[in-house]
Amino acid sequence: MRTNTDLVERAKSLELDAADYEKLLRLFALTAEADLRRLEAAVAETNLEEVSAQVHSIRGVTDNLNLHEMRAAIESFAEKARSGSLRTVEDELRVLRAELRAIVDLLSSRGPR
């Protein structure tokens, strides 16, 4: 999500007004950084149970907020994790971080709410 138009269109697709969707995105942005840190730590520790829990959590939120790019990255991550390829998830983690940064930047450009 890169533009205000993206935000408005995704809100409409969820039958929400833009202000309500923005509130949900702000809440997501507050928690997603910690979720990604936990996911990265679980990968570093090869803690498959925690990896699974974090993937499940992030997948659910990306579905509920219609965050297609993050959803695709977490699905690819999950597939690699299921096949035991935790050493090859760097690209997905980079995409997740970049998409989160784009959301935070967009919300920042909209000012405090």
How would you characterize the overall build of this protein?
With about 110 residues, the protein is an all-alpha fold. It has a single domain, classed as HPT domain (Four Helix Bundle (Hemerythrin (Met), subunit A), Up-down Bundle). The protein has helices spanning about 5-15, 20-45, 50-65, 70-80, 90-110.
Order of helices and strands: HHHHH
Assign an overall shape: elongated
Which structural class do you get from the secondary structure elements?
mainly alpha
CATH domain fold name: Four Helix Bundle (Hemerythrin (Met), subunit A)
Number of helices: 5
Low-confidence stretches: none
Distance from first to last alpha carbon: 19 Å
The CATH superfamily is HPT domain
User: In total, how many beta strands?
Assistant: 0
The CATH class: Mainly Alpha
* Share in helix: over 70%
Residue share in β-strands: under 5%
Gyration radius from CA atoms, angstroms: 14 Å
Q: Which sheet architecture does the biggest sheet show?
A: none
CATH architecture: Up-down Bundle
| Number of discrete domains | 1
Question: Which key phrases capture this entry?
Answer:
Four Helix Bundle (Hemerythrin (Met), subunit A); 79% helix; single chain; 113 residues; 0% strand; elongated; mainly alpha
Describe how the helices and strands are arranged.
Layout: H1 4-13, H2 18-44, H3 48-64, H4 68-82, H5 90-109
Helix pairs in contact: 1-2, 2-3, 2-5, 3-4, 4-5
Give me a quick take on this structure.
The chain has about 110 residues and is mainly α.
